[in-house]
Amino acid sequence: MAKIRIGVVGIGHLGTYHLQKFRMMDPCAIAAVSDSDGAKAAKAAAEYGCAAFEDYRDLIPHVDAVSIAVPTAAHPEVAGAFLAAGIDVFLEKPLAPTLAEAQALVALAEANGRIFQAGFIERFNPAIVALKSLLKAPLFVEAHRLHPFFERGTDVDVILDLMIHDLDILAWFVPAPLAHVEAVGVRVLSENVDIANARLTFENGCVANVTASRVTGKTLQKIRFFGLEGYHAVDFAQRELVSLKRVRQADGKIDIVDNRADVVPQDPLEAEIRAFVEAVLRRTPPPVTGRDALAAQEMAGLIGERIQAVEARWA
User: Fold this and answer.
1) Terminal C-alpha separation, the chain
2) Domains, in order of start, for the chain
3) Which pTM was predicted?
4) Which distant-in-sequence residues (6+ apart) come within 8 Å of 5 by Cβ?
5) Which of 62, 70, 76, 225 lies deepest, with the highest CB count within 10 Å?
6) Pairing relation of β-strands 254-258 and 65-68?
7) Torsion angle of alpha carbons 202, 204, 207, 210, nearest 10°?
């Protein structure tokens, strides 16, 4: 069986890791890489024994599938070119700077029958995978994703850069449309909002309080779910899950006891890339489709709009 000819566009922090994971997978042959910095592309090509190009469009005749890890502003143009050419695409989050551009990419993928997977790596975090089988109907959710400042990612606001991971998890776990949004954000070190807080109310009554910052001294990546069946806390960085369930004892008293959640260790990036490869091989929808990504981007857009409205009052 012929191997999938893989291309990687953007040989930076994430693209380098993508290359490492693709090389581990038997169905794949790394065929070409591209980066606007020709030296980066040439170095990767020498290591992986493939072609190197500065112009991503030169990859098109050489590949069956690509992973794209370029700045978000370039997503519509770069991903659009490959989808239009009939090539399957793995695209790092967010899909695009705006919801309209993201919708256009999803429509293009569907019109051309392409596999289009969004890079929401937390879906593959083993603690979240374990929680998915336990959590039924959360009533309150609290999420914190706090990071020190890095230039990487500041071409978009912190909502699209960091918070969108937690918005995707919310869209996955809360079985109801969003009903109301309150939000506030501040531009601290970049031209875009660097710290944001949103209170999201869903139509089933669930409320989520979500905070993201890229100007914090220490890293914190945690989410907590509260519901009638118990309490669940995920530490994304440590890949740990604390799950407590409510039980009625023989004497009628209610207790909270350890749920003994089974967290099976796995490398989230490897699992994510492998899922994309399997979807390409089987021609089946990937675990995180373009339409899944739109759900998170729609929430991000509403939060951004609310923050802009608050900023207008400050002006």
Assistant:
1) 62
2) 4-120+269-286 (3.40.50.720), 123-266+299-314 (3.30.360.10)
3) 0.94
4) 29, 31, 32, 62, 63, 64, 65
5) 225
6) unpaired
7) -40
What's the chain's average pLDDT?
A: 95
**Range of weakest confidence among 177-181, 210-214, 230-234, 253-257:** 253-257
- Which residue do the tokens 């089974």 mark? 262
Where do we find the tokens 């929401």? 120
Taking each helix axis from N to C end, the angle separating 75-84 and 99-111, rounded to the nearest 10 degrees, works out to 10
Write the DSSP assignment of 45-96 as a string of letters: HHHHT-EEESSGGGGGGG-SEEEE-S-GGGHHHHHHHHHHTT-EEEEESSS-
CA gap 245, 97 in Å, rounded? 40
Q: Yes or no: say if 241 and 233 are a contact pair by the CB < 8 Å rule.
A: yes
Backbone angles phi and psi of 225, in degrees to 5: -120, 135
C-alpha distances out from residue 99 to 13, 154, 305, Å: 25, 18, 12
CA distance 254 to 308: 45
The H-or-E segment that residue 158 falls in is helix 158-158
**Residue 28: enclosing H or E segment and its boundaries?**
strand 28-34
232 close to 224: Cβ distance less than 8 angstroms: yes
- Residue tagged 């945690």 (tokens): 222
**Which element (helix H / strand E) includes 47?**
helix 38-48
What are the φ/ψ torsions at residue 97 (nearest 5 degrees)?
-65, -30
Cβ pair 151, 284 in contact under 8 A: no
Residue 133 DSSP label: T
Report pLDDT digits (tens) over 106-157: 999 999 999 999 999 999 999 999 999 889 889 999 999 999 998 776 789 9
For 214, the token pair is: 């890229």
CB 41 within 8 A of CB 11: yes
Looking at residue 289, the DSSP 8-state letter turns out to be: B
